[in-house]
Specification:
- With about 325 residues, the protein is mainly alpha-helical.
- It has one domain (about 85-325): Orthogonal Bundle (MetI-like fold), CATH 1.10.3720.10.
- Helices cover about 80% and strands about 0% of the residues.
- Helix 3 runs parallel beside helix 6 (about 180-205), helix 4 (about 140-155) crosses helix 6 and helix 6 crosses helix 8.
Length: about 325
């Protein structure tokens, strides 16, 4: 039996012929080549990739450090120059040329922010809902609206101010008033809220919509019960950015809301001329008589913006946590 197996193996090797032997030699050579040291070109490529990674990491860390340093420098400079100039007279309820109180401007800022968001937020959210949920994808109208909103985001605020002065103040005869300034600021932040809401709605998975449709819910109920709550953190981010732009706006409000240093009050308070904190700070600094009080106003404005952002972020985090628990 062993002789028979040996003869069979030798006969099989003979039947394979020279092709089998050639394949074996090729395999042996390839194995020997793979066991050799890496080629110089491969070594250089690895060294270049490591060097590139190190350079990118250094640049990223340098950019983060410069950004943080500039932010700390600005905030520190405002606090150092402004905190010592805060006094009780700056928070008087009435403005005079002696105390240059910022309290009327602070209240007007809150009113201006409220009315501007009240106008722009529903319009921006509903427009984004239509573009994402109802309009056909690839529609020319959708592309035109998106291009228009992106263009409006880059227009300087002085242009919005001139438009508000010509249309709201002059054409509609609203005069320099709180209402004219609120509508002008609403037009300014409308593209921002609209685009952020649209991106938030697009980030919601289609499986949420399909599951709602599978349970028998309609389109409108799916949008308001499933899609909008899931996209709410992103929507609030856009509202936060819009709030920051409202609070810090100066040029557009000088042409539409005026510079009167008194709180809008009375039955027709919407048509009273007012000034916000940013306008108040600008006027104090340009007059040159109350520069120290202008720095104090800057501190209050900074705290106001940080407070509004912190409150909005807290609400967004709670909504996101509630959606995660609900899921």
């Amino acid at each position: 039996m062993p002789d028979f197996a040996a003869n069979a193996a030798s006969s099989a090797q003979g039947t394979l012929g020279a092709d089998g032997m050639a394949m074996a030699d090729t395999t042996a050579r390839s194995l020997q080549q793979t066991g050799q040291a890496p080629r110089p070109s491969t070594h250089r490529n690895r060294l270049g990739a490591r060097l590139f990674a190190v350079v990118v990491r250094v640049l990223v860390c340098l950019g983060a450090f410069c950004t943080a340093a500039v932010l700390l420098l600005l905030v520190g400079y405002i606090l150092i120059k402004g905190v010592p100039n805060l006094s009780a007279s700056l928070f008087s309820w009435t403005y005079t040329s002696d105390n240059v109180s910022l309290m009327p401007a602070l209240l007007n800022t809150l009113l201006m922010t409220f009315f501007s968001l009240l106008i722009a937020t529903p319009l921006g959210i509903f427009a984004a809902v239509y573009l994402v949920e109802y309009a056909r994808r690839g529609n020319r109208l959708v592309k035109l609206v998106r291009i228009t909103t992106e263009t409006l985001q880059g227009i300087p605020s002085i242009v919005y101010g001139l438009f508000g002065m010509l249309f709201f103040v002059t054409q509609l005869h609203w005069g320099l008033s709180l209402l004219s300034g609120a509508f002008t600021l609403a037009i300014m932040i409308l593209p921002l809220i609209m685009r952020t809401t649209e991106e938030s709605l697009l980030s919601v998975p289609d499986s949420f919509r399909e599951g709602s449709f599978g349970l028998g819910a309609g389109k409108l109920r799916t949008v308001f019960s499933i899609v909008l709550p899931s996209a709410m953190p992103g929507i609030l981010s856009g509202v936060i950015l819009g709030t920051g732009r409202i609070v810090g706006e100066t040029a557009a409000l000088m042409y539409t809301a005026g510079t009167v240093a008194s709180v809008a009050s009375g039955s027709n308070f919407l048509f009273d001329s007012t000034r916000t904190l940013s306008v108040h700070m600008y006027l104090l600094s340009t007059e040159g008589l109350h520069v120290n009080e202008a720095f104090g106003t800057a501190v209050v404005l900074l705290v106001l913006v940080l407070g509004i952002n912190a409150l909005s972020s807290l609400i967004a985090n709670k909504l996101a946590k509630g959606n995660a628990d609900h899921e």
